[in-house]
Amino acid sequence: MNGIRVQNRTGAAYWPGPSNLQVWNNTILVPDPFGPRNATGVDVFREDIETKFTALGLTVVFVDSWDYHRADGETHCGTNVRRTPPLAMQQWWNDWPIN
Fold first, then answer.
1. In sequence order, what are the residues at sequence separation of 6 or more whose Cβ sits closer than 8 angstroms to the Cβ of residue 63?
2. Which residues lie across from 29 on neighbouring strands?
3. d(CA 5, CA 11)
4. Contact of 21 with 28, CB cutoff 8 Å
5. What is the pLDDT of residues 22-63, one digit of tens each?
6. How far is residue 70 from each of residues 14, 58, 77, measured CA to CA in Å?
7. What predicted TM-score, i.e. pTM, was given to this entire model?
């Protein structure tokens, strides 16, 4: 399977998963899916991902995460993002229902 060793597992992803993207402001870092190409040579997965996210006003950057993928990881495994939640969410536990 594309050089991926699968031992004692029931399955493994064939290509890096775009759902494991990383958000950075209005930019999203998406694992390059290395998807199938259409008759004109365009990666149809990349094209679909970019079309949908740019329609939302986001900038898409495809990242070659093949080495992480081969080690059962993805883009988020090799990145750190420091986030500041909106002020209304900073003390979410105060609004949490108590059972």
1. 29, 30, 31, 32, 75
2. 22, 61
3. 10
4. yes
5. 888 899 988 888 888 999 999 999 999 999 999 999 999 998
6. 10, 28, 12
7. 0.64
CA angle 49, 62, 55 (to 5 degrees): 35
Q: Please, which residues bridge with residue 23 across strands?
A: 28
Output the average pLDDT for the chain: 78
- What does the pLDDT read at residue 1? 43
Indicate if 5 belongs to the active site. Answer: no
Weakest mean pLDDT among 2-6, 12-16, 68-72: 2-6
The angle at the Cα of 60, spanning 73 to 36, to the nearest 5 degrees, equals 65
Query: Which of 77, 79, 81, 91 is flagged as catalytic?
Result: 77
Tell how far CA 19 is from the center of its chain.
4
